TrEMBL record:
Span of domain RNA polymerase sigma factor 70 region 4 type: 124-175
Domain RNA polymerase sigma-70 region span(s) in chain numbering: 26-90
Highest taxon in the source lineage: Bacteria
Protein transport listed as a keyword: no
UniProt key word Hydrolase: no
Protein's name in the database: RNA polymerase sigma factor
InterPro entries: RNA_pol_sigma-70-like (IPR039425), RNA_pol_sigma-70_dom (IPR014284), RNA_pol_sigma70_r2 (IPR007627), RNA_pol_sigma70_r4_t2 (IPR013249), RNA_pol_sigma_r2 (IPR013325), RNA_pol_sigma_r3/r4-like (IPR013324), WH-like_DNA-bd_sf (IPR036388)
Length: 184
């Protein structure tokens, strides 16, 4: 086990006892990645930040239920994704129109934090993904960026396996067509 993992384990033990400094250190280590996960799903920077903070609060209050501290990052990410999907589903049901569809808004670059974020092709693909239908964008984000398999996406989006495969296939085809048009 690396010293970083030991350090995380020690911090999580301190967090369980309510140590706010340890909680702040955990927050500082994970907040950017969790924000980026939320923003890719909800597409609203303010709501993504709210979801990220709510997810940290949930994680800190339910930390005792985490059996393997080595899985904290994945566990926290799952909480963020579940909260983001919950918000997404709620807005779809309420048939809200996102503000950025109504007025022009300068967006921050809040895509992938990995080394590929400066890659022009990655930027182009992420920008084109934003123009897809919301369910296409969400399914591709979950599948290609977050790494969920079809079964997990079915559960998250509350659709059948066949619908999931069809949705992702159509989303990929729509993405390909838009990328070809953009390259022309």
């Amino acid at each position: 086990m690396t010293s970083t993992n030991q350090n995380i384990e020690q911090l999580l033990i301190l967090c369980q006892s309510g140590n706010q400094r340890a909680q702040l250190e955990i927050y500082n280590r994970y907040n950017k990645a969790m924000y980026n996960t939320a923003i890719r799903i909800v597409k609203d920077s303010f709501k993504a930040e709210d979801i990220m903070q709510e997810s940290f609060l949930t994680a800190f209050t339910k930390l005792k239920s985490l059996e393997d501290t080595n899985m904290f990052g994945a566990w926290l990410k799952r909480i963020v994704i579940n909260n983001s999907i919950g918000y997404y589903n709620k807005t779809v049901k309420q048939n809200e129109v996102p503000l950025d569809n109504v007025i022009y808004k300068v967006e921050d670059d809040c895509g992938i934090v990995e080394p590929d974020q400066n890659n022009e092709k990655v930027k182009q693909i992420l920008n084109v993904m934003k123009t897809l239908k919301p369910n296409y964008s969400l399914s591709l984000t979950l599948h290609l960026i977050e790494g969920y398999d079809y079964e997990e996406i079915c559960e998250i989006m509350n659709i059948s396996y066949a619908n999931c495969r069809t949705l992702i296939s159509r989303a990929k085809e729509s993405l390909r067509k838009k990328l070809v048009l953009k390259a022309s």
